[in-house]
Sequence to fold (280 residues):
Amino acid sequence: MTDPARPVPKACIIGHPVAHSRSPMVHGFWLKELDLPGDYTREDVRPENLARFIASLRERGYVGANVTVPHKEAVLGLAEVASETARAMGAANTLWFENGLLHADNTDVAGFLANLDERAPGWDRRGGTATVLGAGGAARAVVYGLLARGFSTIHLVNRSRERSLALEAAFGPAVTSCGWEGLDRALSETNLLVNTTSLGMAGQPPLVIDLAPLPDTAVVHDIVYIPLTTGLLSAARARGLATVDGLGMLLHQAVPGFAHWFGRMPSVTEDLRAILVRDI
Ligand code: ATR
Fold:
């Protein structure tokens, strides 16, 4: 039963715009499923108001928050304690108060890894080779996760050479970048292919690549989840390859925040997936 003397814990997602966010659906599902008192709302905060908003987070009754575009980088400088992952990413997506201090973490890395663990058990080959398409914030999280799992070679394929060279410099010799013209060669030795570009997302141009050079045992993962089955995943399935869609990354990255704010570890279940799939 709810104790009337204790305020209901409240968290939110901070972004601009934020109306499209599916995080309230995820946390709302868990609160109901675990029968916990709590609330999770959206807060549309313009960049010029972010510092003030974060400074007043607790006054507004929040025990923490998720942070999305365009605030993930700026919020890192506003937290009092940042995790090693958040510092390595230069961005945070989860905030909570601990011993009176505002903590920040980047749970995209853990979400990416947990999703692959769940959907493609045995995917992470120590000493393996991955090809990552894209060189934005999502690619940074993916590369960091793959290196943590012992991948020894990561081919980064990106349109803007400048951005992939910057990631190469940040991560060291295991990461080598090339333009799209280098894709076939990279694919021929790839155990895991990950698309982190916006190509293939609803409203964006399709991602059209030839998957023929991939070994038959390769896993293909698209972090895009709208639509759930992208052209890349369809092509991979047609070739008989194992595939992983991006929805689980969204669900798994939400787990640590929920545990911090509401005190229970939620599960990513088929029921939760089904609710989001219906909404996509
Ligand atoms: P995120 O933070 O989600 O990774 P981002 O930083 O905007 O988002 O990165 C988007 C990625 O999609 C980039 O790698 C981008 O390539 P550039 O670095 O060359 O911009 C890639 N991308 C977006 N539209 C593209 C297109 N039409 N063709 C090729 N790559 C594209």
